């Protein structure tokens, strides 16, 4: 049995996470979800985006499933919940998979998530300000090893994207990436970040596992999402040594919240990445999503007229038809007793 913390957040966060939970519950009895609160409402009560007691509990879980929270521009002292969680749980690797669901292609980006230019060591002086682009041996090694593992799993290679021709920190990073990849037996190609942006626009699908520093990775991974067709379908995983957090990349989308039309696919694929991380079978969800997208009615962001719920049920039906369920007796009993929500509340 795996224990998963759920932070649904606000806006469309709960709408898409409920969809993801429904999909997970329809294929496995091995996960128990525990809900936690976080964000602005918690901050108003306790002065922090998530309480220390909740963080204690969450650290003991196997994984976290996260929706999205609104970060107001004008709330003094408030720090974004997802950034707080990345730091508190030391989620050093960010893996973003940008799928072309209609053609079965993917862009895979591994972003170093804990140091680089976001090291948090910046300082403002009277007449200047400085940020520190920190690359440590430990940080570089662990992210290179992470990228190498993803590349191996996919029978692929790493494209290390850097500015080592100018930046001392990337020269150091580069040396370690090549060292680790040699040890791991993974091929490394490389590209200079500025000209690489053009490749990522024109010819995005053939770069293996793209690996980069925190700020570069942030920019590249946002740029790459244009190839997905909608921001609503892109999943991401944030991995630490002992826990990982999965979330759709989109935010709380206040403009469509409450209308029941949010695209749930990003959250559903995030749950699929979570199942893979836990050693369960996330592929089934990916296959079902691809198959549904090829023929089903989609949400308005993808040119359709479907609701969140219709897409979710369509994907669940697709899972069943591609691969009939083999749920155990105990699980079916729980469902009969109404303890497992197989349907979302309408
Ligand atoms: P956003 O991703 O919430 O929305 C951008 C645009 O994409 C909007 O037009 C929205 O309707 C659309 N969109 C997003 N997700 C969609 C989905 N699943 N289905 C259909 N359409 C979708 O980004 P925005 O507007 O910049 O931020 C809104 C709020 O979310 C802000 O308060 C921001 O701080 C927060 N945010 C939170 C994140 C997190 O918690 N991880 C990440 C990004 C933003
Ligand atoms: Mg970003």
Q: Would you kindly provide a written description of the structure presented here, covering whatever features stand out?
A:
The chain is α/β, with parallel strands linked by helices and 346 residues long. It has a ten-stranded mixed sheet, sandwiched between helices. The chain is globular, with a radius of gyration of 20 Å. It has helices at residues 13-27, 40-46, 52-59, 81-88, 137-153, 168-184, 193-202, 214-224, 265-277, 283-295, 308-322, 329-336; strands spanning 2-9, 31-35, 63-68, 93-100, 105-112, 123-124, 129-130, 158-162, 188-192, 209-212, 235-239, 244-248. Helix 1 (13-27) runs parallel beside helix 11 (308-322) and helix 10 (283-295) crosses helix 11. Helices cover 41% and strands 18% of the residues. A hairpin with a 4-residue loop joins strand 6 and strand 7 (129-130). It contains twelve helices and twelve strands. It folds into two domains: 1-92 and 231-346, Isopropylmalate Dehydrogenase, CATH 3.40.718; 102-227, Isopropylmalate Dehydrogenase. The structure holds 1,4-dihydronicotinamide adenine dinucleotide and magnesium ion (MG). The site of 1,4-dihydronicotinamide adenine dinucleotide has 22 residues, from loops.
Question: What's the gist of this structure?
Answer:
The chain is built from twelve helices and twelve strands.
């Amino acid at each position: 049995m795996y224990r998963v913390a759920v932070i649904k957040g606000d806006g469309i966060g709960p709408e898409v996470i409920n969809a993801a939970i429904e999909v997970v519950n329809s294929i496995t009895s091995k996960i128990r979800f525990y809900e936690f609160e976080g964000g602005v409402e918690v901050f108003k009560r306790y002065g922090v985006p998530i309480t220390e007691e909740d963080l204690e509990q969450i650290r003991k879980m196997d994984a976290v499933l996260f929706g999205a929270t609104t970060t107001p521009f004008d709330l003094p002292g408030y720090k974004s919940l997802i950034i707080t969680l990345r730091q508190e749980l030391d989620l050093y690797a960010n893996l973003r998979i940008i799928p072309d669901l209609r053609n079965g292609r993917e862009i895979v980006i591994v972003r170093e998530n804990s140091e680089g230019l976001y090291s948090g060591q910046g300082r403002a002086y009277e007449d200047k300000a400085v940020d520190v682009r920190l690359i440590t041996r430990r940080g570089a090694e662990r992210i290179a090893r992470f990228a190498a593992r993803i590349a191996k799993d996919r029978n692929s290679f790493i494209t290390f994207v850097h500015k080592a021709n100018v930046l001392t920190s990337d020269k150091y990073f580069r040396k370690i990436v090549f060292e680790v990849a040699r040890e791991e037996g993974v091929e490394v190609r490389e590209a200079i970040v500025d000209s690489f942006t053009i490749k990522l626009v024109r010819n995005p699908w053939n770069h293996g596992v793209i690996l980069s520093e925190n700020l570069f990775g942030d920019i590249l991974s946002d740029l790459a999402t244009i190839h997905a067709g909608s921001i609503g379908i892109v999943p991401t995983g944030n991995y630490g040594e002992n826990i990982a957090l999965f979330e759709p990349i989109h935010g709380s989308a206040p403009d469509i919240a409450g209308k029941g039309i949010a695209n749930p696919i990003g959250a559903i694929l995030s749950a699929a990445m979570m199942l893979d991380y836990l050693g369960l079978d996330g592929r089934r969800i990916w296959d079902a999503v691809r198959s549904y997208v090829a023929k089903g009615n989609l949400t308005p962001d993808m040119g359709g007229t479907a609701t969140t719920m219709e897409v979710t049920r369509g994907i669940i039906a697709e899972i069943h038809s591609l691969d009939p369920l083999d749920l155990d007796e105990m699980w079916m009993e729980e469902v009969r007793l109404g303890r497992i929500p197989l349907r979302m509340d309408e």
